[in-house]
Each structure stands twice: as C-alpha cells, then as structure tokens.
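Please go through this chain and its backbone structure tokens and walk me through the local backbone shapes. Keep your notes short.
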Amino acid sequence: MEDDRIPDNEQQQQINVELSDEVAEGIYSNLAMIAHSNSEFVVDFIRLMPGIPKAKVKARIIMTPDHAKRLLLALKDNIEKYEKAFGKIEGGGDAPRFPLNFGGTLGEA
C-alpha cells in the first residue's frame, strides 16, 4: 500500500483568519493614495464625494515592500480572472491628479 500523506516539511501551514462583523461590512473607497519609504508602503483608502472639496481617509494600511509586491501580484491575478469571467475593465487612465505630497514619494491608484 502506498502512503499518500504529504511530509510535514512540505505541508502548507494553515492560518485561522478571524473576521469581525464590523470589518466584514467593508469600507467604500473610490481613491487610494500611496506613499513609501525605504522600509514601508502606506496606502490610504479615501472616500471622495462629488461636490465636496474635503475627502476623508477611511482606512490606512501600512505594509512592508515585500507584502506590497505580493498585493500587486494578487491584484493582477484577480483582475485577470475577473476580466476573463466578466470582460475587460475600462478606464483607469483618467484618474484625478492631486497636488498633495506628505513628505514622501507619492503614487496614486
């Protein structure tokens, strides 16, 4: 009889992720501003409402450069899967430009 078990050193570690009701509701954001230093990326998720000159940061995520790269690859993979299932996402080239600089390198998404 053949042993089909995966050796312990090859098994993927399982992570138990807890999601509270409040976090599960999500936060709507229609603008993200990204800044980085040599050790971290800061992504501010913002809700910009038409006709209102003041926007609010709804969430700030701080991550290492390695995790930022993993996020980029995961988003790319998911966008490709989405477009295969539902069609090409149009737009993205006409993002508003803001003259904001918080002392670091600034990007937009």
Summary: The CA atoms of residues 31 and 46 lie 5 Å apart. Strands lie at 31-36, 41-47, 56-63, 105-108. Residues 99-104 have pLDDT under 50 and may be disordered. The helical segments are 21-24, 65-86.
